[in-house]
Structures are given as C-alpha cells and as structure tokens.
Write a structure and sequence with these properties.
alpha/beta; N-(1-d-carboxylethyl)-l-norvaline Dehydrogenase, domain 2
C-alpha cells in the first residue's frame, strides 16, 4: 500500500484552510482547491499546490480530504463535472469531514469503492480555534487498516481521534454530538437569561455554573464561540442557507426518524432554532 505523503484538501473554509496549513507544517505535500480563489492563493504562497478543480486535487493526492458544506457539494466533489471519480490514484483514500448523515456517506463510499478508492467517514468537532491549534477531534467510520494509513496525516490537525465503527458510524456519532451541543447552547442561553433577570451579574452567574454540575465545554468557550452560535439561532429568511447548527439538527432528526426514534427535546430545540425564538440575543454578555 502507498505510504501517504500527498494530501489533498477540497473546501478551504474556517476548518479546511487551517487543516491545510497544519498539513503543510507537518511536511506533507498538499494540493488544495476551493471555489473561492483567495484561500487557494494564500495556501499556494504557503507552499501548497493550487488546483483548479477537485479532479486536479485527486490527481495529486493519495489522501483526499473533503470539507465542503453539505451533501450536494460532496456529490459534486465525488461525481460532478470536474470530480475526483475519474482522476483517482491507485490505493487512494477519500475522507469526508462534512456532516452529511450515514446514508449519503455510504452511497459515496460505494461509488468510490467501484474505482478502487477507500472511504473514511471523518466528521469533525472543535471549531476553527481547535483547527488552528491542531486540536480537532475526529470521529471516524471505516476499516481500521484504511484508517491506520491515514492516521499520520490526521494527527497533523487532530489531537483526539476515535474510530466509531464502519463507514456511516462517524456520521451517527457526529449527529448525536451536535444534537447534545445544540440543546446545550439553547439551554445555556435560557439559564443565563433567567439568572440575569433575577438580578445575578452575568460574570458571577457564569462562574457559578462553571463550578456546578451544569458546567460544559460550551460554557467554557462561550467567549469565543457564543456570538457565532447565537448568530445561527437568529431569524433568517426562508430561502437562506441553513447555518450549521440548524442543518445538523435537521439531519439528526431525519436519522432518528429513519431509526424509529422519537427525540422530543431535540425536536423542540430544532423548532426553537428554526423559528428564531431562542432568548438571550440582545445581551452582549451572553
């Protein structure tokens, strides 16, 4: 099997760009592509090979990491007009870091397997801060032997790497994680609003929560991530693209329906997120 030294990154957003930078710093040959020219140009100056399509990335890469937004974009990367499907190297690996749900990833894996390319289901958590620090957490789905080949590259940008099971299991784990995190965000907004309305100073209240059983990572990184999370909960036009939190809640509930599960708290949280009725937006401290 080919030792992985050439890595491609498709999708250079707030997670993809720092992942590419970490791979370059770790000594990998990195090929990059994004529909936007700016991050491609910046990474080219940092030493990456700038590509004009997903297919060109595949032609340069033993491991292709896709970090696009959703299932339609992933389908375009894999089988679109300028896709990786007909440009794959022998024994190559495709790793999708997008949160798609198990069924789309299994479908993509079957397409790629027919071309001799293995798939790793690679959902990510940690956000852009962890990405810049190389401290992302990966929940992987795939064959252990395939994962072992990709691990040196993954370790360049992730500090926690856990195999959840076969292809699709990483997606199920990520959706479970996102469901819990989203409920936590909405609950924290409500709890902080309640305590502050009752006369407790915001800083004092946050410290009290941190010292109690209600403490969470969400609270600990609220200063950095709180404004972004609150932005995802604000009202938006019906035709606007779904923010990640809302998109992941929808995917989690769709998976629950497929599995015959009822998630009342998750369903209510999704309704709150979609309706823009989460409280706490007006106060800059929360």
């Amino acid at each position: 099997m080919t030792v992985i030294s050439n890595v491609g990154v498709i999708g250079l957003g707030i997670i993809g760009k720092p992942i590419a930078e970490r791979l370059l710093k770790a000594g990998f040959h990195v090929a990059v592509y994004d529909v936007r020219s700016e991050p491609v140009s910046e990474l080219k100056h940092a030493g990456a090979t700038a590509c004009a399509s997903s297919a060109e990335v595949a032609a340069h890469s033993d491991l292709i990491i896709s970090l696009v937004s959703d299932t339609p974009q992933t389908d375009d990367v894999v089988s679109g007009a300028s896709s990786i499907l007909n440009a794959l190297r022998p024994d190559s690996i495709f790793a999708t870091g997008s949160t798609l749900g198990p069924a789309p990833v299994k479908r993509v894996a079957a397409q790629l397997a027919a071309k001799g390319c293995a798939t790793i289901d690679m959902p990510i958590t940690g956000g852009y801060i962890a990405a810049a620090d190389g401290k992302l957490a990966l929940m992987l789905g795939g064959e252990q032997s395939v994962i072992d080949r990709a691990l040196p590259a993954f370790r360049a940008f992730a500090s926690t790497i856990t195999r959840a099971g076969d292809v699709g299991a990483g997606q199920a784990a990520k959706l479970a994680h996102q469901l819990i995190m989203s409920v936590n965000v909405v609950a924290l907004l409500e709890g902080l609003s309640l305590g502050m309305a009752g006369g407790v100073d915001a800083d004092v209240l946050r410290q009290i929560i941190k010292d109690g059983l209600a403490n969470s990572t969400v609270l600990q990184i609220w200063g950095d991530m709180g404004p972004r999370w609150k932005g995802m909960l604000k009202p938006a036009p019906p035709d606007a693209p779904l923010p990640n939190m809302r998109k992941d809640l929808h995917s989690a509930l769709e998976l629950a329906q497929e599995l015959g599960l009822t998630l009342p708290v998750g369903t209510l949280t999704s309704h709150i997120a979609d309706s823009g009725t989460a409280i706490g937006h007006a106060d800059p401290k929360i």
